[in-house]
Amino acid sequence: MLKRILIIESDDALAVAEAKALETAGYTIIRGFNAFDGFKKLYESYPNLIIVDRELSMVEREDTCLRIRQVSDVPIVVIGTEEYAAETLELGADAYMTRPPSLTELVARVNSLLRRRQNDKLYRDNNGLNNGGHLMDNSEDGLGGLTRIEFRLASCLVLNKGRLLSHSQLINEAWGGKVIGLATLHLYIRRLRKKLAIGNIFGVRGCGYFYKETTGLGL
Fold first, then answer.
1. In terms of domains, do 112 and 151 share one?
2. Which residue from 37, 98, 127, 208 has the least number of CB within 10 angstroms?
3. Total domains present in the chain
4. Neighbouring C-beta atoms of residue 61, cutoff 10 Å
5. What is the domain extent for residue 153?
6. pLDDT tens digit string along 104-132?
């Protein structure tokens, strides 16, 4: 199965050039035209790696790389000016390239990051470990330390930051219309609260949940 690369880039010419180089190298390309669209594509398509323009943000002064890191540990290559390289790497980027990047080097970086990720996965699988060093739960397909259900819930909550989402909305997003009891939803929310490193998930009794970036404890 071909690896999926999500390119979040507003510059059409650069995005097309990057896509062509990566397609030639054997990758499937998914395009996000802005930060919001890119995050939506992340939620929908589960890419194996993301290339993102540092200047894009969902809201003013919010770093897209940091937002992605809140819900996934998918490898991230950030494209931007040299002055922000160290800061962006501290926020969780796996690689930083100055704009415009060398396409040959970009393909090499992507190959290297995905090869390293595959080697890490083989090590964890062979030793029965997940990303946190705990015994793996093989009942679901893990994704970046989260199961697919957890990833869908986290993406939905973070994408709608500050907005109260009803229990039924969250169940529909995560389980696709299956009949799921509230006890199961509450269990997954408790698991997410432990796994999300930044911010928290708050509950409104009898209504639903919302996500807010804070160091406080969830209700």
1. no
2. 127
3. 2
4. 5
5. 142-212
6. 999 998 998 888 777 655 434 444 434 44
